[in-house]
Amino acid sequence: MNYHTSRRGLLAQLIFRLIGEPQISAWTPAEMAADLHAAGFAVREDSGMADWNERFAQRHASVDRGQHMRIGVARK
Fold first, then answer.
1. Nearest-angstrom CA–CA distance, 70 and 5
2. What is the pTM of this model?
3. Fewer CB in 10 Å around end: N or C, the chain?
């Protein structure tokens, strides 16, 4: 799943709401892991833009704008 660690600025929130994707929550990786665990899932991986930049772009990508985005992989 994709989740955010902080809320975006007001303009970005408005734009996302207008396209039907309102940002209503934010979690830390620990909070997301706890919520998933409570629902019976085990987190296999949790990574963010800096991780993806290192893994896939050899640190050549600009990731400053996406620091709040994370992807978690969990299994039930």
1. 7
2. 0.75
3. C
